[in-house]
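Quarterly update, task 2.4: S-adenosylmethionine-bound model.
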Amino acid sequence: MRKLKQVNHLMGLLRPAVEDIQARHGSPVVVDAGSGNAYLGFILYELFFKDAEGGTVLNVEGRPELTQRAQERAQRLGFTRMEFQTAHLDTAQWPERIHLLTALHACDTATDDALAVAIQKGADHVAVVPCCQAEVAQLLKDSKKAVEPTLTMLYQHPWHRREFGSQLTNVIRALTLEAFGYQVTVTELTGWEHSLKNELILGRRVHKESRPARLKLESLLGTFGVQPKLARVLGVEPSPRTEPAPL
Ligand SMILES: C[S@@+](CC[C@H](N)C(=O)[O-])C[C@H]1O[C@@H](n2cnc3c(N)ncnc32)[C@H](O)[C@@H]1O
């Protein structure tokens, strides 16, 4: 029921993106990355694609038993333009063109794989609700010596490092989208009583890239001495750390 509440709420937030791609493309392609039981895909299809002339919803999931079960359900329902692929996100076969990419609670760096694909394919819209994230917390631990000492106080304790790492991860994700030409909105998915993993990052592609956002991103990575997977895959390098200006 909690998942249903989240997905239903997400539908309202995704509606403008879906209506936009349906208005502009005859056969829009929606990809849900790390789709699990494909709840999101089923509801998207039911609401927006079942009665439309065209358009596909591709669900990519690493666990074959989930893909198989969801595929059987789609067949039973006659959802013929719902497609399924069992694959790890960083080696999946992606369609040439993606119009909307979603990733709901895709674990740790799976959200980054999803974002990287969206950016590389120039998806018109992106919507991710990140899940647990461990990568940046580990990178912060490893980079401590290279970071300005006052800043390291923000994440000396493991608990703080996990929380701060999670915050920094999502800031990096939003800024990366901006650097690659997306207009970004970060908002709450639904009430905290339904899920603790509740941050929704929405992106709409408005231009090819943003140089100022790219510079901010490189500076942020350089300041904390981290280059997480999303930055590595997209070739974004941390800028060399400069001494802070005196107050
Ligand atoms: C927490 S579940 C969320 C599933 C679904 N999006 C939902 O909200 O109901 C995360 C799903 O992502 C899948 N997953 C995690 N990492 C993946 C990866 N690198 N490649 C493909 N699937 C992945 C898991 O198998 C799992 O089904």
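Highlight for this quarter: Strands lie at 29-33, 56-61, 82-86, 100-104, 125-129, 182-188, 199-205.
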